[in-house]
Every structure is written in C-alpha cells, then in structure tokens.
Design a protein that fits this description.
Layout lengths: L2 H11 L1 H25 L12 H25 L2 H9 L4 H41 L9 H27 L3 H6 L11 H22 L8 H30 L3 H6 L1 H13 L1 H26 L1 H8 L4 E5 L8 H10 L3 E10 L4 E5 L2 E4 L9 E3 H8 L10 E5 L12 E5 L18 E3 H7 L5 E4 L4 E5 L15 E5 L1 H11 L5 E10 L2 H15 L19 H7 L3 E2 H40 L1 H13 L4 H34 L6 H34 L2
Parallel strand pairs: 5-11, 6-10
Antiparallel strand pairs: 1-12, 1-13, 2-12, 3-4, 3-7, 4-8, 6-11, 7-9
C-alpha cells in the first residue's frame, strides 16, 4: 500500500471530521473576505472606517483561537488512528507528511469555497442592508483577496506547526489516549474573586477617568482601566463555577441536587475559558457596533428636531448675505410659503481665547470666533428676564449632545487684532496653546475683554440652530451686560453687527422655498450657481470662495436628509461588522458544543451504569448547556451596554441612546434564545442516538 493510498483511505474513513474541519475553515475565510469587502470599499467614509481597526483585531483574534482549537480537536480525536499507524511502523515524520498533505487539501479547498461564499454572502448583506438602510455600492478589490489570504494562511500554517510539534513529543501510548484524556487545569477561587474586584473597580473608575473627573483624564490610567475591563472576564469565566460551587456548598440540599452539573462544569469552564472569552468579546463588540449604529441612525430626525428649532437659518454680516427681512419675506411668499415667525438676532464675532493654569488656547471649535450677544437682545429673543451684571457673562450652551460643565477657564475676547505683536503663523492657527506670558507679550492686555471663570454663569438654551462651518460656530453664545456690549462694540470697531436670520414656516414646500432663498442670497453675494452646490461644505483653504461657501444658509429638512444619508452609511458599516461578529460567535459555540458530543456520550454511558435516569441526565445536560451558552451572552451584552453608556457619558441625550441600544440587546437576546432551543434539541437528539 502506497503512502498516497493511505492518505486517501484515511480521508475516506474520517470524511465527517474532514468535512467539519473544512467547513469551519471555509467559514473563517468567508468572514475575512466579507470584512475586506467593507474595509476596502471606497464609498465608506474614512471617519467611519476608524472603528474598523478595532474590529479587525477582534476578527484576527477570533481566527487565531478558532483555527487553533479546530486543528487541536481534529488531531486529538484521531489519536487511536495515529497510534495504529505508529504501531504498524509509520514514523512521526510520515505522520507529519500525511498531515501536511491533508492540510494542503484543506487550505486549498477552504480558500476556494470560502472566497466564493464570501462573495455570495457579502453581496447578499449589501442587498439586504441596502433595502433596509442605504444603498452602498458593492465593489471587490485585489486588496480584499490579499487581506483574506495574508491573514488566513499564516495563522493556519503556524497552528499546523505547533500541532506537529505536539505530536512529535508524545509517545505511542499518549497518542492513543489523547482522544480520551481530560485536560488538566485548576481554577483558583482567589484569582476569580480578585478578578471580579479588579473588574468592578475598573468599570467604576473608567467613566470618571474618561470624563476627566479624576486623575485629570490621565491616558495611562484610562488605558489600564480599559484593559482591565477587557481582560477581566477571562479570569472571571475560568473560575466562575469554582466560586459558585464554593458558595453553593454552604447549602447542602442545593449542592447535592446540582453536584453532577457543577463538577462537570468546573472542568468545562476551565477547558472552555479561551473559547468562551473570545465569544464574549465578539458578542460585546458586535452588540456595541450594531447598537451604536442603530441609535445614531434611528435618532436622526429626533436629534435634528431638538438641535434645530428653526426651518431655515443663515448668518448675515457686513460682507456676506447682506439682505433685509422684507426681501427674504418676499422670496418666501413668492415661492408659496407662509411665515410663522421670523427672528433676527444681532451678535458680535471676535477671536476668543481661554486661559487656565498659565496656558492660553483658542476657545471655539472653528476659527476661534466667538458669538457675543447683549443682555437686552438675548432677553427679547428668548422671552426671558436675565440680569447680567457688569463684568459678568452668561455662557449659553446650545445642546449638541455634550453636557455643559462648570466653567474652569478665564475667557478673553480680543477686541483689536492689530494689537498682536510679533505675529507668527501658529498664533493664527485654529488650535494652538502657549504660555500666558508669551501670549501677553504678543497681545496688548488693554485690547482684551477678560471675564474670570468665577464671573461666568452658564445655561443651556437652543436660541439658534446648532450649526458650524469653517467660518463660525453656534455651539456657544456669550451674553454680556448691555454696557459691556457697547464697550466691546466700540473698541472692536464694529459698525454693523452680524445677524442670525431664524425662520419658521407655517405652510409651504420647504425645498422649493429654500431653493428660492439660495438664489436670492447668491444674487446679493454676486455669486453664480456653482456656489453652495455642496450641502455639507466645512473645510478647504481660506480664500474668498471657501469663505462664501461657509456662509451657506441651512435648511433643517435638507440637514435631516444629509444626516440620514451619512448616518445610514455609518449604520450600514456597523450593522455589517456587528452581524459578522455575532454570527461568528454563534458558530464558535455551535462547533464547540457539537464537537463535545462524543465526550458527552461516554459520560452518559457511565452515568447509566450507576443508575442515573434519562430524565435526570437530560436535566443536568440542559443546565450545563444553558450556562455554557448564556454566560458569554450575559457578559457580552453587559459589556456592550456599559461601553455604549461610556462613550455617551458626556452626552445630554444619553437616555435616547440607551433606550434604542436596549432594543438591539433585546432583539439579540431573543434570537440567541431561539438559537439555543434549536441547538438544545439537536444536541439532546444526537446524545440519544
């Protein structure tokens, strides 16, 4: 009998195991390929792809663990077969040669069918998500194939190398007994308790460090806390049953009823710890991605209504959009609209700087320009009765989601830009920080209107729409006493204050009316139709064209449509990645449970000999299956909700976000329960065969 004949007969005899091994590796290739189709899709914005790097780490970790486990299992449960070969005179060198031929066949077929499956399923994902969310162009690039092969092949080859080394170190007896040999492991309850304590402390500290409430947001401490929350479940899972058994032992009746389950699971949770930990991470990341994407997409209209109380808004100053209310009213009426209310709010726009701990920095999101409003104008616009004392200031925070905190910096408005001494390029940059001594050498303090942090009050009010461009931002408005306002106005040389035009309609086609407003403002700006074609222009080099682009009017309905498109792409990406991770986690559990059926059958045979009934065995096996199946689910969804809450800690609309995230978690848990019952039925059916 030739060597090739032995390989062929061996392949035929172990066909079921080979098919299982082949399908698992094909699935891994398909997952990598589907990930590549998204990562290398040019229609996905780069800012959305930022989350892909972390997802890639999770997917690679999944591939390493799953490939290593399947190879180890595949070789371990062929111990008797290998033992026979060795007994008949085959050397370990021949054995390794046979495994290499087998693996070459597995690699080739898995890559081929995996890529084909990845092509089909990724296309199906795009079609389904495109119908539900937003249509994303499906494209395949060479990089997708390169990523798939360059990740799968090295992991498979390295895993094969370690498997071969494992075989060469065993004696014939050890090889024969490997399929029946139990994994030797010991769980230390003290380690588990310490892990729980460290995990709890890290989860408590992380949001406080993240928001800067403690340790001044130190990045090292932040990283350590984050790592502890990720690594903690590994030690907790591996000692969970040991700790649980120690507790239940204090209650003899409960302990005796669950003795078999606890004893078996004490072994299982130790041997499963890596698989269950990886599943936990995949579940947490998958639910986090889908939950985050869904909340942003679902709340698009709600958040726009909260952040934009006016149908239309534009900014007028002495250079751009110089038009009267009557002219705008006529444009709206000529286009079939009826005005519900039209407010004009005057303000001054000056460079703003903030000083803290001897450092001075620019203070706003864009181009360091502030919005200064007089007390009387603010009261008239909001219908309030604020009394701002001279030398004090009210910092009005427009709700864009961030939570306003107590002022911690002195605020300075530069009333005369010519007072800057020894100008340097850095001083005019959007985000710069310098020593206060250096700052005051360049700026004449007499040209600064300074308000110490102790004299700054704060309030949240949606007095305009929440917008920003590379020319102005509406996130903050600073209300000062009327006399202070006049001093600032005179010293800064303002002849005509800037104005917010804020319009609400009672009736009319908003798209048609907005098109009319755009045309009217193009005329007063002496611009052609090429201006303001881009609905979301934010950047570009500073020149006449880009500055005019920055003063484009805003329409709430247009903003909703733009946000829906952008958020739809974001949700598509998150749903695609999240689904990959959740499906992969379920496949890992399925494979692990199915491959342990042979060991469970042996256990059932032994238990029947000592008088354990079928009903008792079914009850015990169901209990341990529930724990094995739902511990990763419990840890995963808990971590996902925790991190969704964490990234929204400073978000005023967190209650909207968490409610939507809970819907995602609820749907996943329901699907997982259905999957469990289907798997349980198949599992018990196979055990009875």
């Amino acid at each position: 009998m030739t060597f090739s004949t032995i390989v062929y007969k061996n392949l035929k005899y172990n066909l079921n195991r080979y098919i299982s091994f082949y399908l698992v590796n094909s699935f891994i290739v398909a997952v990598l390929f589907m990930y590549g189709t998204l990562f290398f899709n040019d229609t996905i914005p780069d800012n959305t792809k930022g989350i892909f790097n972390f997802s890639f780490v999770a997917i690679v970790l999944f591939c390493i663990i799953f490939i290593s486990y399947t190879q180890t299992y595949f070789v371990k449960f062929r111990g008797k077969e290998f033992g026979v070969y060795l007994t008949l005179g085959m050397t370990t060198r021949d054995l390794k040669k046979m495994l290499r031929w087998e693996n070459l066949i597995i690699i080739s077929s898995s890559l081929l069918t995996g890529i084909v499956a990845g092509l089909l399923f990724s296309r199906m994902f795009y079609l389904i998500l495109g119908k539900v969310l937003v249509n994303i162009e499906y494209s395949i690039s060479f990089n997708t194939f390169l990523l798939t092969v360059s990740v799968f092949l090295p992991i498979f080859i390295i895993s094969t190398f370690f498997t071969e080394r494992y075989l060469t170190k065993l004696s014939i007896i050890e090889v024969i007994q490997s399929s029946a040999k139990k994994e030797i492991a010991a769980a230390n309850p003290i380690t588990g308790v310490l892990a729980i304590i460290v995990f709890a402390i890290a989860m408590y500290l992380l949001p406080k460090v993240y928001t800067g409430d403690i340790f001044d947001g130190n990045k090292v401490i932040l990283t350590l806390c984050a790592v502890a929350t990720f690594v903690g479940p590994l030690f907790i899972i591996s000692t969970l049953i040991t700790v649980l058994r120690s507790v239940i032992q204090k209650y003899p009746r409960s302990y005796n009823k669950n003795l078999l389950v606890l004893s078996n699971l004490a072994h299982r949770f130790i041997s499963y710890r890596t698989i269950l930990y990886v599943v936990t991470l995949m579940v947490s990341l998958g639910v986090f991605l889908i939950g985050t994407g869904y909340t942003i997409h679902k709340n698009t209209v709600t958040f726009n209504d909260l952040e934009r109380p006016y149908d239309f808004m534009f900014v007028e100053n002495d250079k751009y959009n110089h038009i009267s209310q009557d002219e705008i009213r006529k444009v709206i009426e000529d286009n079939g609209g009826e005005i519900k209310n039209y407010a004009v709010l005057d303000y001054l726009s000056l460079p703003i700087y903030k000083m803290k701990d001897g450092k001075v920095k620019t203070g706003e999101r864009t181009y360091s320009n502030s919005v200064i409003i007089s007390e009387s104008n603010y009261n008239q616009h909001t219908g309030s009765n604020k009394d701002i004392q001279k030398g004090y200031m009210l910092d009005v925070f427009l709700d864009g989601g961030e939570i306003q905190t107590k002022p911690t910096e002195d605020i300075m408005f530069l009333m005369n830009g010519k007072s800057i001494q020894k100008p340097v390029k850095q001083f005019d940059d959007v985000n710069f920080t310098m020593d206060s001594s250096d700052f005051f050498q360049r700026v004449n303090s007499a040209d600064l209107f300074t308000v110490p942090k102790g004299r700054i009050l704060n309030e949240k009010d949606q007095l305009t729409n929440l917008e920003y461009t590379n020319a102005y931002s509406t996130y903050h408005a600073y209300v000062v006493d009327d006399k202070d306002y006049e001093i600032i106005k005179i010293n800064s040389g303002y002849h005509t204050p800037s104005k917010y035009h804020l319009i609400n309609l009672s009736n009319g086609d908003q798209r048609k009316i907005f098109a009319g407003i755009l045309d009217a403002l193009r005329k007063v700006n002496h611009a052609d139709e090429t201006i303001w074609k881009n609905k979301a222009f934010l950047g570009g080099p500073i020149n006449e064209t880009t500055m005019l682009e920055a003063y484009r009017p805003f329409s709430k309905i247009e903003k909703v449509e733009t946000d829906k498109e952008v958020n739809g792409v974001f949700y598509f990406s998150m749903a695609f990645l999240g689904s990959l991770l959740l499906i992969s986690s379920s496949i890992v559990l399925l494979y692990k449970v199915v491959t342990d059926i042979a060991e469970d059958k042996l256990q059932i045979t032994i238990l029947r000999k000592i008088g354990v009934t079928n009903i008792e065995m079914k009850r015990n096996l169901t209990k341990q299956l529930i724990l094995i199946f739902f511990v990763p689910t419990l840890f995963g969804v808990t971590m996902a909700m925790y991190y969704i809450a964490l990234v929204n800690t400073n978000y005023s609309k967190i209650h909207y976000t968490m409610m939507q995230a809970l819907l995602v978690v609820g749907m996943y848990v329901v699907l997982q329960i259905l999957f469990y019952f289907g798997l349980r039925k198949k599992y018990l059916s196979n055990l009875n065969e």
